[in-house]
Structures are given as C-alpha cells and as structure tokens.
Amino acid sequence: MAMSKALPHRAIAPWGRHRGHYIFGVDPRSGERYVQTTFDADGSAGAVHGYDGYAGAATFTTLGNVTRGNAEEVEIRYPWRIVKYEFARDLMGAGRWRGGPGTDWEAMNEGSEAGIATGSSDGESTVGMGLLGGEPTPLSVTFIVQGDAKSRLKSHRMAKVQPADRVHKLSGGGAGVGNPKEREPEKVLDDVLDELISLEAARDVYGVAINPETLEIDWDATRGLRSRPS
After folding, report:
1. Do 130 and 176 contact (CB within 8 A), yes or no?
2. Nearest of 120, 113, 156 to residue 25 by alpha carbon
3. What global pTM score does this model have?
4. Could you say which DSSP state residue 212 is in?
5. Is 30 buried (19+), middle (13-18) or exposed (0-12) by CB count in 10 A?
6. What are the start-end ranges of the H helices in 7-97?
C-alpha cells in the first residue's frame, strides 16, 4: 500500500484470501482412509495498474504455481461429488482494473461420515485492501448444507459432515486498483455479458447503465451516473 503511493503505476493489489480445508474420512469404495485438501475454492489474483486480476490463479501463497484440480479428479480420488464449481458474480474488488473473480464451490459427501477442519481459512474476517481508490477483497463464507438447512461453518473449526451433506464455499476474489467509475464502460459491459458482475453492480459501483433487455450501454444515463460526486 505504501509503495503504491510512491509508484502508482506499479500498484499491485492483494489476491483473494485462502479458503483451504482438510476433509478426512474413510472411502467406502476402498475402505481406505483419505485426507482431501484443495485450493479449488480460492478466489483469484488482485489487479495491477493497467490490468485486471488474473482469474482462477488460486492463492497468493502459491504465486499461481499450484493449479486447481478438476471435478473429475476429485470425484475419482475421493467419495465426494462436485455440485458447483464456477466464478461467483460480484465477488471481487471493483476498480478501474478489477480483481479477478471469486469462486462459488460446492461438494457433496457421497461416502460415510467425515470430518472437516477449516483452520487454514482467513478470508471470512480479513480483507486485502484495494489501491488508488479500488475496492478490497470481499469477505468469504462457508456453509454446511443438510437438505434444506444451511449452517455457517467458521474458520478455525472442526465439524462433522454426514452422508449427503454438502460443503458450500463462496470465496472472495482479488482487490481492485483505481476508481471503479473510471473503468471503460465497454469492459463493464463485457463483465456483465460474462456474468462476472450484475446489472446492479454495473450501475451502482461502476456508474454504467446497461439496458436489461438489449444489454447495450445507455450512454446518456452512464454520463449522468458518472457525473455525480462519489
């Protein structure tokens, strides 16, 4: 943060916080014990001056050198089925250059009773600050889903996961660099079309009005939104 003030053209915003876990149990298919840990639910990289944050770069502690697994590998190695694994909408730090998107990850226990440890997760209570007017990394959250019931699972906890229970994680992406209302409206539209940000965020955060029916930029309304004091 200090260096970004001295060298704004070299500003580098924080990456999304780590959302790791350890799930352990016995695989009924083999009778063998297993421990599953993953970077899959982590967010993405923070923005740098001139560039959006790299999408899907896992966690800063790996500097991008540890890749995410794929759903098929997880399901072959462990008695868990991947229910959802995609970028999350509106879950990154906005900016002239926005952070990489967060992750929406959910998996179901198709084995016997298992345990989960969440001690390596800090993103539910700490954020990485945005730079030069950019927004910080969003907070993350983890749930245990049992049928229609959902309970929050905080970090640094141990919990049991019964058969058919699901672990659902929403992990914040990277922080932004620069004032969001200085982002090119065309890039904001691209993010809406890619379902990375919502129409509401485009208007309220980036000051870009997009017609919900035609999905085209309303330039007059956009100029009006951006002329308002922040």
Report:
1. yes
2. 113
3. 0.90
4. T
5. exposed
6. 71-77
